[in-house]
């Protein structure tokens, strides 16, 4: 059985050749011919094909690297390719490309056919014409959901909006039909669709149904590298499912073909010998639906049964067996930790994404939630589990866990749910900055949930795109590109150098570079230096908090133990630094009062950063260049180096200062240039606004300074609640050690309660 798939809104044109606009339809296609839309171009080519004597199909499409929208399309002769016996590999086609104006232009054309042309009669497969679609209410409801997509690949791996899926329908013994061979490891297919069609036909003969299961993507370009097709009774998300283990997994080879690399045939339920799954395709169900705003977004799967769209289900990359293990772990942790939080996204009764955070993570967020790293680096490689983390930077400049998640799919809706859940769990903590991947779905989710938060792109993704786009560029270009991006000191210098570089190497039409220039404030160091990132280096990738202990390859049986081990190891490192900060004193290297002030307040790690800046300030010369009222300006330069200089502006009204190096804005510690000016002004202590409470060693100091620094009442309350909760937990643990200690702890709390009331 062959099923033709057409884009939504297209119907058969049975009056072949009877076109209304004779003038336009008689025109020959040529390079440069312009259309208002891709549909108009398809209709024009279809009418031209009728006159000449051939039929057309929609061929390959290409997507924008910027936003995933369709940037060009091919419309081909129906005899293109060799997937069917009726095809002859005909090369005839037109390709239309979308311009910046929104118009579509023919930029490639091939008119010659390798087969005989003739009149297109009604017996032939019809071409498509744009008409207002007539659909039922149920179909309209599905179409309003934005992410309906088709598992559709041609031989070279590209996604196409329509085509032909070859379902060789299995006829069981006695029906006189062809039988389907048993699947086996090593069986090859030309495409993923062909494999899916084969497994469906095999399943129908065997007496079970098939669902599309987990997929894996390439770390380089996000393309699908392997797929699982599973028995419909796999998992436990629905009462009808019994955790069946039968499946077939296919893997894409370098040649573009797909091979069965894993297979399990045994079912744990009775097979439906007499109730074979029937797919009667109506006009509506023949249309396979695709979302054109895709990119790396997830699919919504529509099951078709007896000609009706009966179910819409989002793609889920989390194996069904993970949920029971995680829920058991969550319940155990909740019994131990009253601050433990978890939440599960549910779609049509099925579990999807999962988020969790313990009380310690929620307390850490109340102190260090101003900068977060959303680490979804599981996507760098093929992964078993889509494990992601929210990570902050503590007062020792160590990574600290602020939440964990398994992500069902990479859609805007999934990321929006995840960020909203984190926001709710963390007492509505609104970060100043976030480091996350640059996928459009993530960008849109951040803009929606965290308006005003500065989104900095993850470096690993930028590096991967640079390798992909600069593969054919000379080394000279790479050197000039790196110099422009990482050494520009002013916006004028960057813009000028960038434009010269683009012009010199004829890269005006490079879509990725054009997009990256538009988003320069999210990745170019020059633009990021003025934003607070707690000193997380710009030119380095952020390391995973769990290292190699927990990642996208961690198997289920080891996940919980490795997760707990990695988390405990991270927190042990924090406890060591807390001990050092309270029990060790750094050696003072000057007699400056500011050094003693900062040693008293800062953690050991932050004090060493400040002390180094203070010592470096002795190598600089400060010269006042301007003074008017309370405002004065200085040029501070290194002795013997005229190029190493910065401008410092000081206001005596509120003791405010800023430096062109922007170190304080980026790290939160004053730079050597400002310290030199303070010495010239004989300022013996730093103004309180320049000692950030997040870098202080004592929690009580952090709370008091936070109250004085003007943070919101909601953030301050969350800070105090979690600080008191954390302290109380320590006393509870000590008080429960023995009956005597319990009596003492109870008496202390009773007396303390009286004083509070």
Automatic annotation (TrEMBL):
Chief place of localization: nucleus
Transmembrane segments: none
Keywords recorded for this protein, A-Z: Metal-binding, Nucleus, Zinc, Zinc-finger
Subcellular location: Nucleus
Superkingdom assignment: Eukaryota
UniProt feature coiled coil, ranges: none
GO molecular function: zinc ion binding
Record carries keyword Nucleotide-binding: no
PROSITE patterns reported in the protein's UniProt record: ZF_SWIM
Example of a GO cellular component annotation carried by this entry: nucleus
Domain SWIM-type residue range list: 634-682
Keyword Zinc among record annotations: yes
GO biological process, one term: regulation of DNA-templated transcription
Family recorded in the similarity comment: Belongs to the FHY3/FAR1 family.
General function of this protein: Putative transcription activator involved in regulating light control of development.
Name of the featured protein: Protein FAR1-RELATED SEQUENCE
